[in-house]
Every structure is written in structure tokens, then in C-alpha cells.
Write a structure and sequence with these properties.
Ribose5P_isomerase_type_A, NagB/RpiA_transferase-like, disordered N terminus, Rossmann fold, alpha/beta, Ribose-5-phosphate isomerase, EC 5.3.1.6, 323 residues
Length: 323
């Protein structure tokens, strides 16, 4: 039997912002910084050292957000847990492993961890946990919780996801989970999974509906060609103008695509209608609470988002369950 309530939670590694064509934070060039000891001898902190310290702070924030989300949404009595992709999810798996070390399942019972792709399966295996393929889940089983990463979030908890090129399988897991938790970083565009044969046609269509210079995602080494998903599809990264939410439309703004200005759901539907598109990296629509209240199984959109802030605090944004 399906559970009576579904939650979809995401974890973020920085403070929330609205969807934007330019969502990556631009840092000023680092300069040499001088610090003085008690005897006034000058010491130099090189740009590389400053940059390394900044990266370390960000990683600490991501780890803290992951541990907070796992503490709030995981317990050893669960049986099926979804594990997504991305750099932050590694900390989520680490937190789960630590939890199980302190509180192992009773009676030697196994917990099965369902990955959203090859990378997350390796993370599960390296942690000594038991992986299970998504298509091996029994028909009437819902995941107790799923932890995943995402790249952006807006005030309505719509999310951009796909920086790890696993968006199709991540949506499968999201809509099969009672609770869904995400870890968020930053991504400057909307990832779209497309059939290789159709990528040029899709890019042309994206430009016609307002995307600003969509690009085919390629490996760092150009000779290795385009990035391919676990389905053998390509990823197009398509920047758009900052997306509107339902509240904007209610207040009179036009989100129908005029002059390239879109509301989140309208844009997702438009992109999905393009021949050759398998999936779009917008997680939108009703959340798990709303879907189950209407008699469904699960929703793409989270009911909560965790943000690991650079000052070491963890912020949480939550949707209210229906009354």
C-alpha cells in the first residue's frame, strides 16, 4: 500500500535565489592579503590559499546541510531509500552511513538504496550500503525517502536540476518517494536531455522560444565529445531570462513566452513538447503533499529545501501540507 503522505525535500549548498540566466556568483580576483603577528612580522596569504579556504567553507556548509536533512528525514527503520547525484549527495550518504553505524537496523534487516544513475550507485557501494536498481522495486512499493541534489530553487520551491546529467532518472525517483530531500548548488542554465539525433533541431527550437545561446554540454577534453546520460542521450544547457512564478502571473505579468519571458510550468511544458526532448531539468508542479492529497503517488517539487550557508548556518524553506 502507498503511504498516506509524501514529502519531497531538497538540500542546498548556498542561499536560495530565484531562477536566473546568471546564477553563478562572480567573485572578484583574489589579491595578496597580509596578516601581522605580535612581533609585527608580515606574513603573506597567497591567492591560492585564500581560494582554498573559501572552497573549504563551502564544502563545510554543504556537509552541514546534508547532515541536517538526513537527521530530519532518515531513520534506520526505513526499507527503501533513493540516492541522487551531485557533489553534495556524497555528504548525504556519509550522514546516512554514520547514522546506521550508531543505530543499525533491528534484526539484521537490510535497507535498500535506489540510485538515480551510475555515479550515485558507486557512492552507495563505496559507503558499504546495499544498492537496488529502480526497475527492481516491487510494483506497490514507495521509497521511504529520497535524497538528491539540485542546482537552483525559487520562492515556490520549483527547482532546476541536471548539472550531473541524471535528470530523467532523478524524476523517476522523485515521483516514487514518500519524502524527497535535495542538496543544492548553483547552475546558470536549464539542462535538457535530448536524443543525439535531434540535438541540433532542439537547440534551434530553444532559440526560437527565447533561450539565450543554448549549448551542447561537452566533456572537458573536447576530443571525448558530448556528455552522455545513462540513457545515452545528450544534455543541452539552455539559459533563459529569469523565470516567473505563479504569484508573478497572478499579479499581471505575462509568463507565456512573449519576448522570451516564461513562467516555470509554462516553459517546462513548452520544452517537453519539442520533438527529441526526453526530459527537462525543471522540477515543478504540485509537491508530494498536494499530489497525495489528490490521490496520486508523488510530486517532482520538494516540500522543503535545506540551504548550507557560507557562515556555517543551515536554512530551511518548507511548504505547508494541505489542511
Amino acid at each position: 500500500m502507498f503511504a498516506s503522505q509524501q514529502t519531497f525535500v531538497r538540500l542546498f549548498s548556498s542561499t536560495p535565489s530565484t531562477f536566473s540566466t546568471h546564477t553563478l556568483r562572480i567573485l572578484r580576483p583574489l589579491s595578496r592579503r597580509y596578516h601581522f603577528t605580535r612581533n609585527m612580522a608580515a606574513t603573506v596569504q597567497t591567492p591560492d590559499a585564500v581560494a582554498a579556504a573559501a572552497v573549504d567553507l563551502i564544502e563545510q556548509a554543504k556537509r552541514k546541510a546534508a547532515y541536517r536533512a538526513v537527521a530530519d528525514h532518515f531513520n534506520p527503520e526505513m526499507q527503501f531509500v533513493g540516492i541522487g547525484s551531485g557533489s553534495t549527495i556524497i555528504y548525504g550518504v556519509e550522514a546516512i552511513k554514520d547514522c546506521l553505524a550508531k543505530n543499525p537496523p533491528k534484526g539484521g534487516r537490510y535497507i535498500f538504496f535506489v540510485p538515480t544513475g551510475f555515479q550515485s550507485r558507486k557512492v552507495i557501494e563505496q559507503a558499504g550500503l546495499m544498492p537496488m536498481a529502480f526497475d527492481s522495486l516491487p510494483e506497490n512499493v514507495m521509497l521511504d525517502v529520497a535524497f538528491d541534489g539540485a542546482d537552483e530553487v525559487d520562492d515556490d520551491l520549483n527547482c532546476i536540476k541536471g548539472g550531473g546529467a541524471c535528470l530523467f532518472q532523478e524524476k523517476l525517483v522523485a515521483t516514487r518517494a514518500k519524502k524527497f530531500t535535495r542538496l543544492i548548488s548553483k547552475w546558470p542554465s536549464i539542462p535538457i536531455e535530448v536524443a543525439p539525433i535531434a540535438h541540433a533541431t532542439v537547440m534551434r527550437q530553444l532559440k526560437l522560444i527565447g533561450s539565450v545561446d543554448p549549448v551542447l554540454r561537452e566533456h572537458t577534453l573536447a576530443k571525448t565529445g558530448p556528455v552522455q546520460t545513462d540513457q545515452g542521450f545528450y544534455i543541452i544547457d539552455a539559459p533563459f531570462k529569469p523565470l516567473l512564478i505563479q504569484e508573478d502571473v497572478k499579479n499581471g505579468k505575462d509568463g507565456s513566452g512573449k519576448d522570451g519571458q516564461w513562467e516555470v510550468t509554462a516553459l517546462a511544458h513548452k520544452i517537453k513538447s519539442i520533438s527529441g526532448v526526453l526530459e527537462v531539468g525543471l522540477f515543478y508542479g504540485p509537491n508530494g503533499y498536494e499530489v497525495q492529497a489528490a490521490g496520486g503517488q508523488g510530486g517532482q517539487k520538494p516540500v522543503a529545501a535545506y540551504f548550507g550557508n557560507e557562515d556555517g548556518t543551515v536554512g530551511v524553506k518548507e511548504a505547508q501540507p494541505p489542511k
